[in-house]
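Re: beginner question about structure tokens

> Can someone show what the tokenized structure looks like for a real chain? I only ever see the sequence side.

Sure, here's an example I had lying around. Input first:
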Amino acid sequence: MSQKVAVLGTGKIGEALLSGMLRGGWPAADLLVTARRADRAEELRARYGVTPVTNAEAAKTADTLILTVKPQDMGALLDELAPHVPADRLVISGAAGITTASLEERLIAGVPVVRVMTNTPALVDEAMSVISAGSHATADHLAHAEEIFGSVGKTLRVPESQQDACTALSGSGPAYFFYLVEAMTDAGILLGLPRDKAHDLIVQSAIGAATMLRDSGEHPVKLRENVTSPAGTTISAIRELENHGVRAALIAALEAARDRSRELAAGTKD
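And the corresponding structure tokens:
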């Protein structure tokens, strides 16, 4: 934790990571931030006691650079950083679809790059962060990335070839659950419940179900069967979900998310 870490492009995820690191024991004096707007940089200084710098200053000063900008902004950031990043810096990218190879091509030879796909539950320290090494990254670099992202949730190492699939499942995953809760809330209203009561019922059910999945060690099929009585209410609902192709729609949706991640890697914007 004695090394300096810079979070570049400190939006919501970057700020969540920053606050998690501080809670995890990183000294504020060792944390640098960059932001597009001066007022945003000063807000981060006032809130966390960290030091705002320019992107070039971060590259020259920090031992680890965490790039938290959107994929479409990565090219401009790399153009700004590349002349200032020496070979002994660790570069961690959190941009969906951007490969370590493409980052390495834009930096001087030998710079270690680690790719991380995290998700928005980082805001509540329940993130799932998936970590892959570039061609120059060592086990120590991966461990350092795990230490950083472990401050806001769980981490998992995967080969980079699996990153697009992980983006589809966990990077975008929270949105699928929010979408499902939205639909279930509408159903609750249709069934005669006030919106706030429907919301509370669904959210607590989701929390309970997720905790059982995490802690019971049971397969989700087994847990579902435990709720599904013969000729009961649950099996009637499951039948309708199957009749409407919900399982197939989910599979197709995740394939679409994976494909879009690949398109981003190839530089496709539309």
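Each token stands for a local structural state, so reading them left to right follows the chain. The two ends are 41 Å apart (CA to CA).
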